[in-house]
Design a protein that fits this description.
It is found in: Cytoplasm; Endosome membrane; Golgi apparatus, trans-Golgi network membrane; Prevacuolar compartment membrane. The chain is an all-alpha fold and about 800 residues long. The chain is elongated, with a radius of gyration of 46 Å. Among the domains are: about 1-120; about 125-265. Helices cover about 75% and strands about 0% of the residues. The chain has helices at about 1-35, 35-50, 60-85, 90-95, 100-120, 125-135, 140-155, 170-195, 205-225, 230-250, 255-265, 270-275, 275-280, 290-310, 315-320, 320-335, 340-360, 365-380, 385-405, 405-410, 415-420, 425-440, 450-460, 460-465, 475-490, 500-510, 520-540, 555-570, 575-590, 595-610, 615-630, 635-650, 655-665, 680-705, 715-725, 735-750, 760-775, 780-785. Helix 4 (about 90-95) packs antiparallel against helix 5 and helix 6 (about 125-135) packs parallel to helix 8.
């Protein structure tokens, strides 16, 4: 409510000020039109008296000031006209000094002084020195700032600079710089003084008002940067030291932050590079509350962009030892500001690392030095829990990855993993995922066991528990995504040398076996397939690889057996069983019968002891049958043992339909097309008859439990198996046997007790069409089908 009343009062005061200013401006205009100089000066002084108010905020005062500024431009034009008509500008300069109040007098003096310099009746340096000294009379911060801003505005194109029409001797050039620096110094003092006026509880309001006025002070630095006389020598010896002296001595955090930022923004990059030591030397002397990390960050950004603009400037960076100076300065700032939060220090190191990577990308020692400084700062502290600090650490660690697009380069940095060690577990995982994504994105191949060891130490947060924490707190989807990323990483590890590749596999195995029961199902399979890929390569080179070679398929299969054994103990029996069968098939291709038999044995043991779910049993037995069918390495005895086991387990499945399908699938084990000697037609027929009996039993059970026969799908599936072996020339499968089965199916489908199943009928019709098609096609196969009636 009080604030609302204050705003209303301020609006009223502004309106009164504008009204008084306009009224006097009107009379001043009339006096100018009638060429009445004394009245014009009288009314202009009364008009400018409105600027003496201390009731307005800077924002409202600016509105009033701009109206007065517009009127003063008219007055200045009148003074110029008067001088052209012969009126002495010196007399005018003396005359305006008789104005009653100081502030109007100084505004009029500045206005006449501008014309005085233009007339060149007196040296510009003398007039400017006179004006800048007289402006000290105004010590009210707001009034003084706007008065000096007016002085700066009207004089900026009249400075005795090199190449200017007002240039005098060599000293006048220095005087131009002195004038701007003096005006800047006085304005900064006024600006800082604002902070200490008024009540303590209005501090926030004053800071806001000061922020509104800061550009008035900063414009002086912009004017300095535009002067031709301010070359590198002048800047280095005079301008920068005097500006920094004022910045440090004002001891005001707002002013120090803004002015340091102004220096960095307005002066050329080349000047910053050549005066780096002087500029950085001021940083530790700033107030502890100054946001120095942003200031230094912007300085390093500008220097980085300067280096990127042209390769020709890079030697300058080496010549002035820019990295060394920046690194030392940052260390001193962190040491001086003992209360600086850890996030501030890390942010400084991120900026320094970004600068290093852009300016000196080939200097890995510089990069590691920055990381080492960060480690030193973090040493002795607990793992970071501040989210802002950990975010900066991630930025620090991500920068080399983004620059080099190669994790191998990052692995050469000894301090890289030490920085990661200071991350909390969750952020460590995030960083590990970033590393893996970088490898995927850039298709980086990690090709030695040493690099793999270093890499897996970096991403250990993903592949094992680092603090024994429970999995209950981990989001299941996030966990799966993390482990899938590790699995993809394993496939990126490769070396053409089999011995080195085996070392890589052993290194990965060592790490992932520490992962625990939840991780192994994700990480073991890619390792197994990576090893099997190596086995295939060795198989191709079989003629060149002896038994005594350091890397042989037998040695790899031994490692695989032990690895899958660890997985089966998790327990994850279904997955382990699949992997045993994959290994058995690879051993078959390598002609290693004992190894293949051992893998099958392990698969059967898992099936017997661990696979209890009926659906899992069905899937497992079909996998076993399918794999065993493709094996050609076994002798008669071993093959008989395994096929007997497979058919036995098939007949023991819980559900009759599952039994039936598994048993007729076993018929393929006795008729393998690509191997001589396995064409046992009788045992094929035996399997099919057994499948028929089981199908019949399933029909009877359906009749008992549902009051009607079940679908005839099983009979149709068996019929298709009969047709397959019939075409393949199995002498035990005759046309009469097929005819009997067709008639059985037709009888069943027409029976009223049989449940109607459109898909089964469609399946049977399709089978009949196939028989008719073969009969019509003719040939030897058509003759075989001829006796069958459909």
């Amino acid at each position: 409510m009080l604030a609302e009343v204050g705003r209303e009062d301020e609006e009223k005061w502004l309106a009164e000020g504008i009204a008084g200013l306009q009224q006097n401006a009107y009379y001043m205009g009339r006096a100018l039109d009638t060429n009445n100089l004394r009245d014009a000066l009288k009314y202009s002084a009364q008009m400018l008296s409105e600027l003496r108010t201390s009731k307005l905020s800077p924002h409202k005062y600016y509105e009033l000031y701009m109206r007065a500024f517009d009127e003063l431009r008219k007055l200045e034009m009148y003074f110029k006209e008067e001088t052209r008509r012969g009126v002495s500008i010196t007399d005018l300069y003396e005359l305006v000094q008789h104005a009653g109040n100081v502030l109007p007098r100084l505004y009029l003096l500045c206005t006449v002084g501008s014309v005085y310099i233009t007339s060149k009746e007196a040296p510009a340096k003398d007039v400017l020195k006179d004006l800048v000294e007289m402006c000290r009379a105004i010590q009210n911060p707001v009034s003084g700032l706007f008065l000096r801003s007016y002085l700066s505005q009207i004089s900026r194109d009249k400075l005795p600079d090199i190449g200017s029409e007002y240039e005098g001797d060599a000293d006048s050039v220095i005087d131009a710089v002195d004038f701007v620096l003096q005006n800047f110094t006085e304005m900064n003092k006024l600006w800082v003084r604002m902070q200490y006026q008024g009540h303590v509880h209005e501090r926030e309001k004053r800071e806001k008002e000061r922020n509104e006025l800061r550009d008035l002070v900063g414009k002086n630095l912009h004017v300095l940067s535009q002067l031709e006389s301010v070359d590198l020598v002048m800047y280095k010896e005079t301008v920068l030291p005097r500006i920094l002296e004022q910045v440090v001595n004002c001891k005001d955090d707002l002013a120090q932050y803004y002015l340091m930022d102004c220096i960095i923004q307005v002066f050329p990059d080349e000047y910053h590079l050549q005066t780096l030591e002087t500029l950085l030397g001021a940083c530790p002397q700033l107030q502890p509350t100054v946001d120095i990390k942003t200031v230094l960050g912007r300085l390093m950004d500008r220097l980085s962009n300067y280096a990127a603009s042209s390769g020709e400037v890079l030697p300058e960076f080496l010549q002035v030892e820019a990295f060394s100076k920046l690194s030392t300065a940052i260390g001193k700032v962190i040491e001086a500001q003992v209360d600086m939060p850890i996030v501030g220090a890390i942010t400084l190191y991120v900026s320094l690392l970004t600068f290093t990577l852009r300016v000196h990308p080939d200097r890995l020692d510089y990069v590691d030095q920055v990381l080492g400084a960060c480690v030193k700062k973090l040493s002795g502290k607990a793992k970071l829990e501040d989210s802002k600090a950990t975010k900066q650490i991630v930025a620090l660690l991500s920068a080399p990855l983004e620059k080099y697009n190669d994790i191998v380069t990052a692995l050469k940095l000894p301090n890289y993993p030490r920085v990661m060690d200071h991350l909390d577990n969750e952020t460590n995982k995030i960083m590990a995922v970033v590393i893996i994504q970088s490898i995927m994105k850039n298709n980086t191949c990690i090709s030695t066991a040493d690099k793999v060891e270093a890499l897996f130490e970096l991403i250990k947060g993903l592949i094992r528990d680092t603090d024994g924490g429970a999995f209950d707190e981990v989001d299941e989807e996030d966990f799966k995504e993390e482990q899938n990323s590790v699995a993809r990483l394993i496939h990126m590890l490769h070396n053409d040398d089999p011995a080195e590749m085996l070392q890589i596999i052993s290194t990965v195995r060592k790490h992932i076996l520490l992962g625990g029961s939840k991780r192994l199902p994700f990480t073991v399979p890619p390792l197994i397939f990576s090893a099997l890929k190596l086995v295939r390569r060795l198989q191709i080179q079989a003629g060149d690889v002896g038994e005594d070679a350091p890397t042989t398929p037998k040695k790899i299969f031994l490692i695989l057996n032990q690895t899958i054994e660890a997985l089966s103990a998790v327990p994850s029996p279904e997955l382990a069983l699949r992997l045993y069968l994959q290994c058995a098939e690879a051993a078959n291709d390598c002609d290693l019968e004992p190894v293949a038999y051992e893998f099958f044995t392990q698969a059967f043991i898992l099936y017997e002891e661990e696979v209890a779910d009926s659906k899992a049993q069905v899937t497992a037995i079909h996998l076993i049958i399918g794999t065993l069918q493709r094996m050609n390495v076994f002798g008669v005895e071993n093959r008989d043992t395994l096929t007997h086991k497979a058919t036995g387990y098939s007949a023991k499945l819980l559900k009759k339909p599952d039994q039936c399908r598994a048993v007729y699938a076993c018929s393929h084990l006795f008729s393998v097309d690509d191997q001589d000697g396995i064409k046992d037609g009788e045992r094929v027929l035996l399997c099919l008859k057994r499948a028929l009996r089981i199908a019949n039993a399933a029909q009877q059970m359906a009749n008992v439990t549902r009051g009607g026969s079940g679908p005839v799908t099983l009979f149709i599936e068996i019929l298709n198996k009969y047709l397959y072996f019939f075409e393949n020339g199995n002498p035990q499968i005759t046309s009469s046997v097929i005819q009997d089965l067709i008639e059985l199916i037709m009888t069943e489908t027409q029976s009223e007790s049989t449940a109607a199943d459109p898909s089964a009928i469609a399946f049977f019709n399709s089978t009949q069409r196939y028989i008719r098609f073969q009969k019509q096609k003719g040939g030897a196969l058509g003759e075989k089908y001829e006796p069958i009636r459909v």
